[in-house]
Amino acid sequence: MQTPQKIAVVGSGLVGTLLAIYLKKLGHTVHVYDRSPDIRTVEFSGRSINLVMSNRGWKTLQDIGLEEEIKKIGIQVDKRGIHLKDGTFTTQFYGKEGESIFSLSRGVLNRRMIDLAEEAGAEFFFNRKIWDVSLANASLYEGETEQGEWKELKYDIVFGADGAFSRVRHRMQRQSQFDYSQEFMKIGYKELHIPANEDGTHKIDKNSLHIWPRGNFMLMGLANLDGSFTCTLFMPFEGENSFENLKDETTLVDFFAEYFPDTKDVIPDLVEDFFRNPTSYLVMTKCFPWTHSDKVALIGDSAHAIVPFYGHGMNAGFEDITTLNEMILKYGDDWKTIFSEYQKSRKPNADAIAELSRRNFEEMSSKTADPKFLLQKKIEKWFSDKHPDKWMPLYSRVTFSLQPYAEALAIGDFQNKIMEEIMQFPDIAQKWGSSEVEEKIIQLLNVK
Taking burial as the number of CB atoms within 10 A of a residue's CB, which of 33, 182, 184, 349 is the most buried? Predict the structure, then answer.
């Protein structure tokens, strides 16, 4: 327990609500503000990409005793299901037997997290627009409009958990020596939907993350508890195969018939979904510092928004909380040191998962359909199974371990250089399981 403080969390998303639970357990008064209505009272907006929880996220939930509670609303996913254009379906298991991620509906999870935060004693204030924050004394300023009259809300500490376009970060950006960058991908996304069968079962394998890889665009699907799938179409905004070219029903139906023929019977509401749901943007943000003195701190997407192709936006945000909690346990009431050490620890790892996520779009949209890439993955798994002490594949390091992201990225790059050399072996497709290849990998691992 710390000396109780009056703490405001701006943002009632997943990171903000979980942080509120942690802070309440430490004995603080916690108020959570959000400019949107209570998500428990509204229909979801058609902008959702399903979430996947992996070891880092489970660790944060475990530490607070919520792991089993959240597992009840998830579906275990142990492999990729690859739908090739010719109708072939193949699977690629993620890790060793028993290793899996969990598919979670963003709306279902967020609603449950708010319930749990309220049960823990956090107070929520919805439809409350926070426009500014005083960095010097942790006061929030709220009002109906940005130009209108504002009311001051006084706190001891403020956390900005208000996403990629954070108002709390916006205030911090106006200080000197604050680094900030924002980058929009040339790729957008649109939510589509596979309904359940009449008996409530899933139309396709619920334990796979389904990918239809098509080069510079792809379709992805993750299962929901109600038998449905949330699907996401990722495409360039402009160009030959792009959102700008899918402007009418005929073009859309012809496009899906050509590139995703096996979806015809499982996405019956394609036209309705496509033209009703918005085309959304993908943005990456980086900044530093994340904190101001002992008064204000950024956490989750407000500090490091990333693209969704590694499935680690939520996991990275939850891991922020793990690190923050470790610093609290270490430094007690010294919030200035807590904040300083928290940002120092997390910044390199946030940058690393941003880079890994950017790269993974190419892997998912192109390489998963490439025989050479699939052979490389087979060799890595074979070698890793024989020598688990010498080799852990990059995906497993990121998803099934707690190794810092920055270390995982560096080791992954080193391993990839080794595999580039191995793939040059004459007749590698025939001799990949030989002692010659095994010895060569061991030799290259010892050259540092």
Answer: 33
Q: Phi-psi category of 46—alpha, beta or left, where left has phi over 0 and alpha has psi -120 to 50?
A: left
- Residue 179 has what pLDDT? 97
> pLDDT tens across 207-233, in order?
999 999 999 999 999 999 999 999 999
- Confidence (pLDDT) at 47: 65
Give the per-residue pLDDT at 76: 96
Task: Read off the pLDDT of residues 304-322 as tens digits, 9 standing for 90 and up.
Answer: 999 999 999 999 999 999 9
Whether the model pTM is above 0.85? yes
What is the distance in angstroms between the CA of the first residue and the CA of the last residue of the chain? 45
Alpha-carbon span 398 to 219, nearest angstrom: 23
Residue 429 burial (CB < 10 Å; 0-12/13-18/19+)? exposed
- In terms of DSSP bridges, do strands 179-194 and 139-142 run parallel, antiparallel, or are they unpaired? unpaired
The per-type count for the chain, helices as H runs and strands as E runs, is 15, 19
Is residue 113 within 8 A of residue 107, CB to CB? The reply is no
d(CA 252, CA 233): 12
How many CA atoms are closer than 13 Å to the CA of 21, on its beta-carbon side? 25
If you ran DSSP here, which 8-state letter would residue 309 be given? G
CA distance 192 to 271: 9
DSSP string computed for 231-295:
EEEEEESSSSSSGGG--SHHHHHHHHHHH-GGGTTT-TTHHHHHHHSPPEEEEEEEEE--EETTT
